[in-house]
Each structure stands twice: as structure tokens, then as C-alpha cells.
Amino acid sequence: MNLHPQFIGQDGSEEYAVLPMDEFRAVAEALENYQDLQDLRSAKQAEGTKTSTPLADVVNQLDLGNG
């Protein structure tokens, strides 16, 4: 990701960074993806060694196949 911020300051210190909208959206999406990954990892850790059922088996059990 290549960012092109514009810095706005006061009294010689940078106080704000302004990004073009496409770059802002890319940063926001990356942060959301990172949070989703953290949530997934936390959920997996919380599940520990519990058994799971593959999606294909659930589809078959609920008769949700081609139909």
C-alpha cells in the first residue's frame, strides 16, 4: 500500500494527516481485515480442541445439496 498523506500542523508540529479518499478506504479496509483476523484467531483459541463438522457434512445432513 502506497500512501500519500498531507500533513497539517500548527506552531511547527504536525497535528493531522489527510489522505486521498481511495487511500483512506484502503487503510480502513486493511484495519477491518486485521480486526477480523484477530477475532477469528481469538474464536479458534477459545474453541480449543472442540470437534467441528465440515461444511459439506452439514449441507448433506440438512439436505441442502443440489436442489
Question: Your description of this structure?
Answer:
There is one protein chain. With 67 residues, the protein is α+β, with helices and mostly antiparallel strands. It has one domain. It has helices at residues 21-47, 55-61, and strands at residues 6-10, 13-18. The protein has a two-stranded antiparallel sheet with strand order 1-2. The radius of gyration is 22 Å and the shape is elongated. The relative contact order is 0.10.
Strand order of the largest sheet: 1-2
Total count of helical runs of at least 4 residues: 2
Q: Give me the strand/helix succession.
A: EEHH
- Principal-axis shape equals elongated
Let me know the number of strands.
2
- Sheet having the most strands: 2 strands, antiparallel
Radius of gyration: 22 Å
- Total separate domains: 1
Distance between the termini: 43 Å
- Return residue spans where pLDDT drops below 50 for at least 5 consecutive residues: none
Mean pLDDT: 94
Structural class: alpha+beta
